[in-house]
Amino acid sequence: MTTGRTVLVTGGNRGIGFSIAEEFVRQGHRVAVTARSGEGPAGTLTVRADVTDAVSIDAAFTEIEAALGPVEVVVANAGITRDTLLMRMTEEDFTSVVDTNLSGAFRVVKRASKGMLKARFGRIVLISSVVGLYGSAGQVNYSASKSGLIGLARSVTRELGARGITANVVAPGFIETDMTAQLSESQQAEYKRSIPAGRFATPGEVARVVTWLAGDDAAYISGAVIPVDGGLGMGH
Known about the structure:
It contains eight helices and seven strands; from the N terminus they run E-H-E-E-H-E-H-E-H-H-E-H-H-H-E. The protein has 236 residues and is an alpha/beta fold. The protein has a seven-stranded parallel sheet, with helices on both faces.
């Protein structure tokens, strides 16, 4: 990628978001992360923001623009889970997950698009999940929010594609993070049996797909869903 892009990663204080921000820094970019708590990796600007609040998103962008310049690459990664079976899932369990994971991405992309339209350049990468298409018992809310990102990216591609702006979706499978580390050894072994690659991904393997999509080599890719799941979701 041309060096010196201004990049924003939402939810960049842990897990996959942290690794994505780290990889952009390693490649020589100006990187900001939003976080409700904690800090992004070394070399990033951490800005407090809550993706469920459009005012806080606007303030975060204003702060980043003043410090690093207009945001050229946005990675919508912030997400939450509230897993439970459909019969036990409250309306609040459903709406809170959709408001963070899907509406949150909408708020971030809408605010980012202002500067991108002016520059006639932009890279939008939405972090979905294999369960967005594959489905997962106990994750009706999460699956719905993550599959919604695909419609968002494809509609944005049709609206903004002629302005040098791409919008793509990365759909990770099981990744070695704090969340998978909490699974018992027998659960981990069972999951690995269902993955053709026979292992979980490292966060860096997801991060490098994201940085590639944001770069010049992927300029003609838009509205795509790129799975990083070791073959788990094939055909979905």
